[in-house]
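Appendix B, example 12.
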Amino acid sequence: MLGRTLGMSRAFLVASATVVLIAVAFALGLRGTPAAADAPAASASGASFTAALREGLRGRIPGLRAIFVAALLLQLTFQTFTTWFALHGTARFGVRPEDVTLGFVAWALGGVAGALPAGVIGVRFGRRTAMLIGFALMAACLIALDRVESLTQAVPLLALASASWTLPTVNAYPLFVEPIPPAQRGVLAALFLLCMALGGAVGDPLNGLLFDLAASYRPLFLVMTAYTALAFAAVWWIPRGVGEAGAGPAVSH
């Protein structure tokens, strides 16, 4: 939208300035701990990382491996849309590149509308259930998007898909962090974010290969549906009750 209003060059400058302002706000608003408190933490960080990683890979923390896989696939799905939808939309619907931005606007508005309800649903019905509902609704929207014939028909479905996407996005981290002992949460939180970053890193080359094999961008929403279905399966394997509010951290042996 900014690109259409101000031009792409100015839009990138606005985005860059926004990132800088956020960084400055964090730098001014967050206060560090005293240096004396940092020394023991630094000396123990290597051992903590190794122990936490070992427990996570061995599955001693219930559901941890499944939520890592789901987080990776969740980010992979999002990355697929953000990178490839412009090419897909112009080729499939025969519209100008600037008109395809309506799809991105719809996704953004759907995310804004769905964020708070997603948290409420997670608290009311359980985080695992909320994530399963979100992935199921998202898959249904993506299948419908593969069938529509115009960008006008796609826009409301994109907004609904994004609103559904907020259910696993909002509830994934609380579901992940709740059963982890407090001493290991910092290290494993970093691994959780690395899984999401990995989804973004492998998404573009993987999807590029898939579209090259198909010789078209047409399978975009089918590819996203496949990722979403795999994420649903990963969350399904998380034991019931894990990561819910009040369940308490898992016991580390």
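The longest helix spans residues 64-93. The chain has one domain: 46-236.
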